[in-house]
## 1
Amino acid sequence: MLTEVDSTRAFRYQWYFWRCIGLHPPAEDSFWARHYRAWSIVVNVLPMICMPLSFYMECLHSRSLTAFCEAFYLAAVTFVQQMKLINVIRVRGHLLELQVIMRQLDGRLQSAPEREAIRDKIDESEKICRYVLQLFLSAVVSGCCFAACSAERQLPFPSWMPWDYQESQGIYALTFVVQSLGILALAVICASNDTYPLVYLIMVAAHCKALALRIAKLGHNALSQEQTHQQLLACIQDHQTILQLLKILNTSMSSACIIQFVCTATSLCTLSYIVIYIEMSFFRLCHVFSLLTSITIETLLICYASEQVTHEGGQMAIAIYDTNWIDQPVRFRRTLVLMLMRSQRPICIVAGNILPVRMTTLLSVIKGAYTMFTLLKEAKSKN
């Protein structure tokens, strides 16, 4: 007896995060549902409005290149997260549509290896989501530890405040707590914004793998030639469904990806400048390295997931060669050739409709960060 699988289980962390931050209202008529709009406004004011404004103002008030670099990476990261959150609100309907398509593909699974391939990717997605959340929370904790261990009254992250938080211990403690809570909420929003494209792409890759396993079995069983041809047509239909999934994902993620790559390059540049040219304590050094790791992993995740889709899409072409096409009629072979031609075209997300998202894209982003760093270095030497 084959147990059923549910691909949408891989997205449970994302929808839970979105419900907590006010983007996924409950369906039932309850007290929580009636007051959910008010909750969504309150929970987003501090991390998505107040905190970004404080980082932007800190950039504008900086009077040196060093001070600007210290403030800029936070401003860039929060700006990207604001854009990503707006994009999630814009494509929320498409994401719900994708879940329906995923369930349709789940219903087409025919063997235990296919179901096992889906389960493995579900487990992988959930593990990555937990690790990403832990990573972002560790960056927040390291900033709080750095500020708490500092001899002066410093905030966990450099930001502008409309009051003098160093005036008294009470005002400083209140400001410290408010910023920590805002950054904590921002970390959860970052985790949800950065993992939902990853999970969707991993599940698309999982269904590509399951389809490849199904294709490779064509002609190797006791079915008649007509039944085998009907199975091939069903595989082609599933392949078209997967391509439709990827098209919707590309529409939803294209603009966010290009903004993410620019933000990663500029943030890596400014953080590297801080590490090299600014003297800092051990705690602050650990904090900066945790930020460097978090920002790099943001781009690494999307590149890794898109690379998986490209790899599994290419495996379908290999699976077509594994079919027993020799013993099949001409009609089957002609149909198989058409599927082979389509499966040989690489599939992946295209950032801004110009840049294919692959693992090599991460190297290009790092090269861009190094180029900007050399420009900053020259500007510092001239000053």
## 2
Amino acid sequence: MHSRRTFLQQSLLAVSAASTASFSLTALAKATEGAAIPQASRILVGFGAGGGIDQLARVLADNIAPQLGKGHYVVVDNKPGANGQIAAQTLLNAAPDGSTYLIAPLITPVLSQIVYKKPGYDPARDFAPVSLLAHFQFGLAVPAKHPARNIQEYVAWLKAHPQQANFGSPAVGSLPHFFGLLLGEAAQVNIVHVPYKGGPAMMTDLISGQLASAIQTTSELAPLHKEGKVRILGTFGTARTKELPEIPTFTEAGYPKAVGSGWYSLWARKGTSPQAIAAVNQAVNSALSNPSLQTKWSELSLQPDPRTPAALEQLRVAEVAKWRPVITASGFAIE
């Protein structure tokens, strides 16, 4: 009798274990199926080949492909034009199957919703955040012969010479354009914006002294500063840059509202499976944190800042709240 009871108990335990194992394998199979992504992925870039954002995309593509599965490959698809809007529209028209992603500068998920009357897409409605990638910094420079030697002297000069108080940016509606507005508000001084069609022409006028000041990425300004052709007075970041540790921030100079940075982020089409987004997020964040790639990020003047999809969305919302009143007050808008 005892042997029979023991046999029944063991049989029930075996059936229970088998059922549990069957359930676990089924759940694992479903999870794996949900996490599967296509054999190939493409990363959209809204600017031409060779630029900083393009180089970032290509380094990431090479490094995340092996992490996304055996034989997986990632291609970079340049869609230049309209300040990144063409690439954003391409993502909007893509299927949410986990095969298409967009590396975007801040203008795509943030500024487009403020400056364009009809942007054609809504990041909150149409795109799914994948990961923040990296920050890059901006600085303000004056000609080498300009009398201002620091930020305080520059602001005093602006107030004393209102007819000459201007700043250049590489393009109307660019982030340097809006940093100039931010600085004017922080310093309570009117600075006339002089837009250019690209950075080279702007830097030529700055070096010659035809332009009183200019705002540009520190990666573009640093070589000219070190050659003595221009003088960088301050940077807009929360901390001094590694490439220019001697240059103070505007916050240090007493203008805490004149702070911010540019950043690149990765987005998918809304409706892409959370499992696919999680897999790409993990692969991207691993590449950004890879010690062997830190030299490359430094060469591109990028500060890697891997985050979760939720953290990227929180940043996007905060940046919209920061920039909307500044840009709206200026009256600037694009049809």
## 3
Amino acid sequence: MAVLFVAVLVLLLLVLCLSSALLLRWNEVRFSKKKGLPPGTMGWPIFGETTEFLKQGPNFMKNQRARYGSFFKSHILGCPTVVSMDPDVNRYILMNEGKGLVPGYPQSMLDILGKCNIAAVHGSTHKYMRGALLSLISPTMIRHHLLPTIDHFIRTHLCNWDSQIIDIQLKTKEMALLSSLKQIVGPESGSISGAFMPEFFKLVLGTLSLPIDVPGTSYRRGFQARKSIVSILRQLIVKRKESKESHLDMLGYLMNTEESNRYKLSDDEIIDQVITILYSGYETVSTTSMMAIKYLHDHPKVLQQLREEHLAIRARKKPEDPLDMDDLKSMRFTRAVIFETSRLATIVNGVLRKTTQEMEINGELLLFKCNVNFRFYLLFW
């Protein structure tokens, strides 16, 4: 009986290994029949090489480049992808946007951020949404609203860090999200931040996952978190409409229906833009802030010079006076530190584009025709 059980188990393992090998081979053959594709591997059907990509991070791309060169194919985040790490090809593609190429973000990101977010729309709609968002960071808005709001928030927030050991990665993430939330919804951020933060963290994880809507997956948790966030924001919008009070924050500007406002958005469009603003600034600001602290810790002379510049500015002002635009313009060394941190700690190291038609990518650089529905991942390493 035991021998029979072992024999059946071995047989099942052999069948499983054979099936896995056949599936991998079938997926490779399926894509190898498409003419003009660069070398590379496609992994499993549906899943592709997403698991390796998410686990290994940058090392996955470096290993593939070592095997196949600076231009190779893969299958990540639910979509066949052509990865380019060639500066000339990347420059050509970016200079020819609109000619068969549009932003091509992962389906999970498009689903969770909303169908009206600026990354999901093209043409005249994209231009309209872009204008609405740019109106939120006009010089007048920065001078009279954003800068004072950020100054007050950072002072208050950093007071809670005094005399304790903190997790700088966690704290910078909280700071980035709460600061953005404060700028968007003003004083009401305090009442919704407790329910908002954990849902937002789930949303972020869901955007970089396979778009498989099954209980327990990051995608399902991210999508459920989006529903919770939409509910919070919709209640806030309804409350503001009923009160008919004017609010000098980003949400107030987006909800403005006066003739002076060129960009009038629906409630769904406003909610998607708010989620997009929070999402786009969350990881970039938090990681850059964390790395700036790390670099300053490693270079005490730079930290001392930075401190001297800020103490000189504070010496000209009363303790309660906020920073203004003139103070920012005088921070020459601070600006250099920011630029150097951005150079060393590149957060956004690539962009995604997708093809809308069969096309040839600059025959002099690359004799390659890309099939419709392939996505480009341009890496700047």
## 4
Amino acid sequence: MTLTKKICCLIPLFILSFQFVQAQLETIPVNNDKAFLINSKVLNEPRSIWIHLPFDYNSTNDSYPVIYLLDGEGHFKYVSELVDYLSSYDRNRIPEMIVVAILNVDRTRDFTPIHSLLFNGKVDSLRMANTGGGTKFLQFIQNELVPHVDKNFRTAPYRILAAHSLAGLFGLYTKEMNPDLFKSTILMSPAIYGGNTEILDNFKPFLKNHQNLSGKFFISIGNENTQTVDSIVYQLKMFAPKTIDWDFKKYEDENHFSVTYKSMFDALKFIYKDWFIDNYSAAKLTSKEIQLHFDKLSDEFGYTIKGGEDFLNSQGYKQLRSNNIDAAIEIFKQNIKNHPESWNAYDSMGEAYMIKGERHLAIENYEKSISLNPNNDDGKKVLEKLKSENNR
């Protein structure tokens, strides 16, 4: 092989090596998670709590609905990821949410409201010795945990309780004892046995005595004994008021322990079944149509719900790209009203006014955007150009 051929062969290897060296490793995004202890006076013990916050929590002033997870250590990771996935711009199936996981100390004690030694029809003094702590555990949640979360985080007045297996017993008990604490309840393969079947028996009179009860129920079961779930579903069919929205799913290909992932996915989509607007649809919504959509959601969930920044920005640009400039401006105005701290909302408004030819208003909005984000270099360039044109 000649020297020339050797050099020719080495050049591609050199280029490949150079490109490899120049490539930068993309880091894995860090989850916005926190952990803290609550020294419970009710339970007379410290309780560990894990919290997952939306990705942009620290850069907005928005408030978020909250999902509380019993058996928190078993469900926190996948539910947090699922919430982020379903609430992302591409999916837009649910709102961004705060996830609160309650870690276990003694789940048999905490999840059973009634002291009973019966397990599967037999006395089990070892397994069931500490039953009957559910009343105190509910007091801990409603009097200590929820107030702490509401005080220290920007929560919207809408809570969801997710409960699996024995925690499902506690979830049903919580609804009977304090119906308004959690507006939606997710019961996944609830396990109710022994003396605590009294909670199941109480469900029928509870429903009959609460004919104005609102909220949502989602019940699921795997390929397992369905006696408990059948009873809950029957009582909902026969006695639930029309103001209750509920759904039931059986997953034949899942067992008692694997049923939770599909259940959470379907439950969240059920609770927020009216939320979805396809961000990739060619349909162009007006400001009034957008407001009507969120007004309906506000009525449904009982608090004011506003369009997210990215969603409104996207809808505004759909109008702008179609040369519906005034329609775009109305949406951008709505975005600024909802998210006055957003530099990008003002940047978009500045672009719309620039296209419309209203240079003064364009300058005003770009200046506001840059004041909120001094690193908006593209905005600085546009602003400089606008000012130079304005001085001619």
